[in-house]
């Protein structure tokens, strides 16, 4: 629309699960379709905030590359994986099957995969505020454009920052939340790579550290995540990188 940024992209990869086809739009709406006919089953609109901007036009871009599906029943008969051992919360009766949606206004939302209703047992009435401990950023300048990864008990998410503009962008921290409650379980900040204890209230993750904006993989049998890291901003120019940021920029971290 006329109030959208010039880079409003249709980069969504549909997800087929639970007998439905799930897609997301640049405005972070989720639509569940019948896979064979394309008929709409349900639609969820997160009612995006402009983050104090007049409209979305000044944002760098609006992108949703996809959503993630989690089904408690798929794990019911399996042994608990090493990755999932960080959480011991029971399976949800409110939302036994969930869709996880990263929104362009910096939230992580859990939806009932059957109905499209928010899972009220996750975070604050169904959502987690991903601006927590991030510090300042321009409107639309920090959120996850890509779907999170899920394990038996964790939902793990990174985020994009604005490239080629500033050397004071938000952290590239990777955060893992309890898949049922939305509680922060661990955080990996490349500025403090050996300290994964959830950050204390009032503290801020390392500014301008290399981020992970793309999709990534998990191997639950090995208990491993594979993170394709981007460059420290300002991205293509590396003359100001520290040895610490150079170690993780444009690398694969496990």
From TrEMBL:
Residues 3-254 form the Pyrrolo-quinoline quinone repeat domain. The keyword Oxidoreductase applies. It comes from the Bacteria. GO terms for molecular function: quinoprotein glucose dehydrogenase activity. InterPro entries: PQQ_b-propeller_rpt, PQQ_rpt_dom, Quinoprotein_ADH-like_sf. Keywords: Oxidoreductase. It holds the Pfam family PQQ. SUPFAM superfamilies: Quinoprotein alcohol dehydrogenase-like (SSF50998). Residues 234-254 are annotated as: Disordered. Its cofactor is pyrroloquinoline quinone. The keyword ATP-binding does not apply. SMART domains: PQQ. Belongs to the bacterial PQQ dehydrogenase family. This is PQQ-binding-like beta-propeller repeat protein. It comes from Pseudomonas palleroniana.
């Amino acid at each position: 629309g006329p109030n959208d940024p010039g880079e409003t992209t249709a980069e969504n990869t549909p997800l087929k699960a639970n007998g439905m086809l799930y897609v997301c739009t640049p405005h972070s709406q989720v639509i569940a379709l019948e896979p064979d006919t394309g008929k709409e089953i349900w639609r969820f609109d997160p009612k995006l905030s402009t983050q104090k901007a007049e409209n979305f036009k000044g944002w760098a871009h609006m992108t949703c590359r996809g959503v993630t599906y989690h089904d408690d029943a798929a794990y019911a008969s399996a042994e608990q994986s090493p990755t999932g051992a960080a959480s011991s919360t029971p399976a949800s009766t409110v939302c036994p099957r969930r869709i996880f949606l990263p929104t362009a206004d910096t939230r992580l939302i859990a939806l009932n995969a059957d109905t499209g209703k928010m899972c009220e047992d996750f975070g604050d009435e169904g959502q987690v505020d991903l601006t927590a401990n991030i510090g300042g950023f321009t409107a639309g300048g920090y959120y996850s454009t890509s779907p999170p990864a899920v394990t038996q008990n964790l939902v793990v998410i990174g985020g994009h920052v604005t490239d080629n503009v500033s050397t004071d962008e938000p952290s590239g921290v990777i955060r893992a939340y309890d898949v049922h409650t939305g509680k922060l379980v661990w955080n990996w900040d490349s500025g403090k790579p050996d300290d994964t204890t959830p950050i204390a209230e009032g503290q801020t993750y390392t500014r301008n550290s290399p981020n992970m904006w793309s999709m990534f993989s998990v191997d639950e049998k090995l208990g491993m995540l594979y993170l394709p890291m981007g460059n420290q901003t300002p991205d293509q120019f590396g003359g100001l990188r520290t040895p610490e940021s150079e170690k993780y920029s444009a690398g694969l971290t496990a």
